[in-house]
Specification:
Strand 13 and strand 14 form a beta hairpin. This protein is of the alpha+beta class. Helix 3 packs across helix 4 and helix 7 packs parallel to helix 8. Helix content is 33%, strand content 25%. It is built from 10 helices and 14 strands. Bound molecules: acetyl coenzyme *A. The site of acetyl coenzyme *A has 26 residues, from helix 2, helix 6 and helix 7.
Length: 316
């Protein structure tokens, strides 16, 4: 479903930041707790390590402040904090309130929960506020502490999850801006494939999620590219949700994009849900892969099921 095409008022991404907890857990360490092996995890998922610890608000504050600093902006210049998370610190208040206070932001604050698609959803919400003239400058953050809702005696999910946060500062700009197009979608009848009850742990049907993920990522990416007037050949960089290296490979192949154009961080961070795309974006920026003028595809999927893709033309 097409939910939006970018109108006259553009949005620029003017600063990025990220944060991960200090503790990094290797496959070998996990294999001492559950019946698995480094070899199996690397071959089936591409994951070698992941970070565990911290709080969703603490990681978000660190990433958000780093993004503000890179943008050269002050907290009192921010109209609102939009926090994508599926692992809030508390049920009430929204974790974004804690982040707003911790960052010293004087504007509004709200959470978005679209599971692993949350960051791209939040970016489209930010664009909507900017395009409507309701906000001039926002901080959009994806932050997760999945380790706190994971059963580490069960090998299905525990080998996948990691904790971390990534943030961007976005602002209104004259002209078309950097966000060229986006599509988002959901199929709530598939919510049984990945869920966590109050006080419980993540439950996942990995095979079914895998199967569905590839088709929705490809479909929504093709839709967003078409809305931007581009084809897969025009893409310089793909920043996919980091759930499984094999999902990224299959999606790239079906999209007709060489896999080398995909940013890969899953080996170091595992699946950090809504934090994975902004973490990968920051990684690409810091490693020098992301350059001005590049066409970049952000694409993700997750529990719900939800999915979302956005096409950017990276700025200076
Ligand atoms: N270590 C060793 N063996 C394992 C493990 C493990 N951790 N997990 C499963 N196995 C075994 C199974 O028991 C099975 O053994 P059998 O052949 O003797 O029956 C064999 O390995 C194959 O199991 P599958 O479940 O078929 O493994 P698959 O290749 O599908 O990989 C995985 C499982 C990694 C979970 C994959 O299905 C996947 O990545 N799915 C998508 C997950 C995802 O994207 N989730 C989205 C979000 S997750 C989140 O939000 C936190």
């Amino acid at each position: 479903m097409v939910l939006g095409q970018v109108g006259a008022q553009g949005m620029a991404l003017v600063g990025c930041g990220s944060a991960v907890p200090a503790i990094s857990v290797s496959n070998q360490q996990l294999s001492e707790r559950v019946d698995t092996s480094d070899e199996w995890i690397v071959e089936r998922t591409g994951i070698r390590r992941r970070h565990h610890g911290g709080t969703t608000s603490g990681l978000a504050i660190e990433a958000g402040l780093a993004a503000l600093e890179r943008a050269g902006r002050r907290p009192d210049e921010i109209d609102a904090v939009i926090l994508a998370t599926t692992t809030p610190d508390q049920i009430v208040p929204g974790t974004s309130a804690v982040v707003q206070d911790g960052m010293g932001v004087t504007g509004g604050a709200f959470d978005v929960n679209a599971a692993c698609s949350g960051f791209v959803y939040a970016l489209t919400v930010a664009h909507g506020l900017i395009a409507a003239g309701a906000a001039e400058r926002l901080v959009v953050i994806g932050s997760e502490t999945l380790s706190k809702i994971t059963d580490f005696t069960e090998r299905g999910v525990s080998i996948l999850v990691g904790d971390g946060a990534g943030a961007v500062v976005v602002e209104a700009t004259d002209g078309p801006g950097q966000l060229l197009s986006y599509r988002m979608g959901a199929d709530g009848s598939l919510r049984h494939l990945l869920y966590c009850d109050h006080g419980g742990h993540l439950v996942m049907n990995g095979k079914e999620v895998f199967r569905k993920a590839v088709s929705v990522v490809v479909e929504s990416s093709q839709g967003a590219l078409a809305d931007a007037g581009l084809t897969a050949d025009n893409l310089d960089l793909v920043v996919p949700h980091q759930a499984n290296l094999r999902i990224i490979g299959a999606a790239c192949q079906r999209l007709g994009v060489p896999e080398e154009k995909a940013v890969i961080t899953i080996d170091r961070y595992g699946n950090t849900s809504s934090a994975s795309i902004p973490l990968a974006l920051v990684d690409a920026l810091e490693s020098g892969r992301l350059q001005p003028g590049m066409h970049v595809l952000l694409t993700g999927f997750g529990g719900g099921m939800t999915w979302a893709s956005a096409v950017l033309k990276w700025g200076g």
